[in-house]
Amino acid sequence: MPSKRFDSLEAHVTRPLTPRPVPARPAARPACALLAAGLLATACSPSSDEGDASVLTSLDYNIAEPQNSATGQMLKACAEQAGVTVEREELPREQLMPRLLQGASQQDLPDLMLIDNPDLPQVAASGALVPLEEAGVSTDGFYPSVLEAGTHDDTLYGIATGVNGLALFYDTAKLEDAGVEPPETWDDLRSAAEELTSGDTNGLAFSAIGHEEGTWTFEPFFWSNGAELTQVDSPEAVEALQLWSDLVEDGSVSQSAVNWTQADVKDQFVGGRAAMMVNGSWQLPVLAEEDVEYGVVPLPVPEAGTEPAPPMGGEVWAVARNGEEREAKAVEVLQCLVEDGNMTEWAELNAYVPGKEELARQLAEDDPGMAPFVESVPSARSRTAELGADYPEVSSALADAIQSVLAGDAEPEEALSQAQESVPAS
To answer: Where do Basic and acidic residues bias regions lie (predicted)?
Structure first.
């Protein structure tokens, strides 16, 4: 079907498919001891009762269409290829990790699970997941950065069919009318956002909401300036947050950004109330349905020549330690899920970048609107590479710091100094 123009480039548009029923959850297995933080004190051993290895279980949070039906169809096809049946359960996103952490404590994990990559270390730290390379899963052709997002303590526990990231979207008409070029550096961004701010239109919009979504949006600015999550109050970190503070203070970005999700940011852009926005590749099929002409470029960096450093987004498939026979069959299903054809189909459905470099290059050629996202994958960062299972606490503290600064309650140095208290001692 026709789509709106990305400077004469096309975006993928998808149609909902038919939903499928939710199967019953298998019975629980015996429990093992937990740490106070909710992780296992020692690695759990697999249950001695492996059950029927011809019937596997899976868990994910793809409850929206078309991802729901597509996940079910891919699992079914891969299960048939492996000679098994997969009983799939879907949960709302906020319920998935509590279920998995409880399951890890009780040796009651599904055979296959699809986990948001920054949550993987919390499950992997329990010892309840299968090391994938030891199980024979090939990583040939994958971006190293994609593999890093599924790695905990130097061991690969999760593998992605596709990944997403952030870029700068701009309203082509607004920039042309103002005689402004898409910004490439922070100085360009400051001047462009100020020039494009007029009346009810802000030059730029981004999400600074007080949880991971806000932190995720800030991290490309934080990392590209040389800051690290082990030292969130460094001069480089302060400079990055000062940039955001200045953009809000001079009116280039609405202070309401502290309440905006990325979906809200998209609404500001589509409604003509923002000339540019920081947002993700998943917005491409959404924007293709809207009456707006736009372009997409990599996020501006501190200085020309600096590589963008967006956080690596997307989910990873992992396999539970449920006994050798079940593990072997689950690995077969996983290997099918990351075959080239399935990887390309999933990427096109979600406006994701395939995890394999050659497939990603082909996607950028076929759909140039994805090119800025493909371009950023080699330098994309795993959010948990530095902190592992401690990342969520530091992310929350960083989100609080962003909120207090943009609300005018604290200076960047003060707010980030407080956030540093959440960083575990090395």
So the answer is: 1-13
